[in-house]
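User: Run a structure prediction on this.
Assistant: Running it now.
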Amino acid sequence: MPIPPQGRPPARFSALEVSLDPESCAVCHRPQYDDWKGSVHSKSMGPGVVGQTMELIQDDPSTALLCYGCHAPLAEQQEKVRRAKGSRSRLEKNPAFLASLQSKGLTCAGCHVRSHRRYGPPRLDGSLENSRPISQLPHRGATRTTAFERPEFCKACHQFEADGHALNGTLLENTYNEWKETSHAREGRTCQSCHMPGRRHTWQGIHDPEMVRRGVTVRLTRSDTRDRIVDRVEATITLANTGVGHYFPTYVTPKVIVRFELVDAANNRVDGSLQEERIGREVTLDLERELFDTRIPPGQTRTVPYVRTIAGPGLRLRASVIVAPDDFYVKFFEAIAPRARSERARALLEQALGEAQKSSFVLFEEEIPVS
């Protein structure tokens, strides 16, 4: 990273073939573009990243370029470029920088174009040949390679190197290594088979309720104890990672909240009845300390018990599981937005905060009468 500049295009290429803009790709690849447009990859340079990097590129350009490595990986998307000067290197203004392209995030070209040459997966029948001679095809067709079907293709942005940032001996980004230890890996179920079914460019994940429901099983059980001395409710929520090909959740950003509460006939919560347990990997905002790690490995379960005395008639137990995909970002943007120097950076971070706060959804909810 960054992906090297594309350089001089072939002389016969039209302006459309030279373009790295996703909208240019959409002229011939509309279904893939429409999927990408609604995906998290197209939003990888969203207001939260832009709000941080627009000041970071001036204050700490090396760190900003590190962020761009995955969020805007093309050299043409980066304001500065590292030049070798003898045994050292220095950052200089990038003459190939295209500001309009930077805002597009992880584009089609980020995965499919190198030195103006197009690359793609094998044809659906497994062959590597183009449908016609390359002289008859736009941008001289595509070089087909099985690399697009392998999990290593995703590894560069979803797995830190062995010497990367780790807490308590576990890399902060460790998704590929988690997958390698699962039955998914042993059975040949790749990242693409779950996150790009049918080669769709949707990259569904923790933000998609149906995707999460396919990977996790939730069960509520009740075993009350009643005698002449005490009436109480005892219940348990069990979460099983039955289909996720890595830890659930895998990164430090999302949290899963298991919630119990007693509610009365008017739907009001009974004082003292609320209980919440957070499942995930909680770290400090500076990413320097791990507070807890309660994630669920593939094939394993997490049980959360609940016991409360029943204080009166007409009560119901409400049990729910809430997924907060951007839990870390909510706290992070709340902390850094007031410190932004420019009004634009502050506005972007506040926008990102609002979007993060809206991303939570109810994965499971059930009510049962207890008195």
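The CA atoms of residues 316 and 370 lie 5 Å apart.
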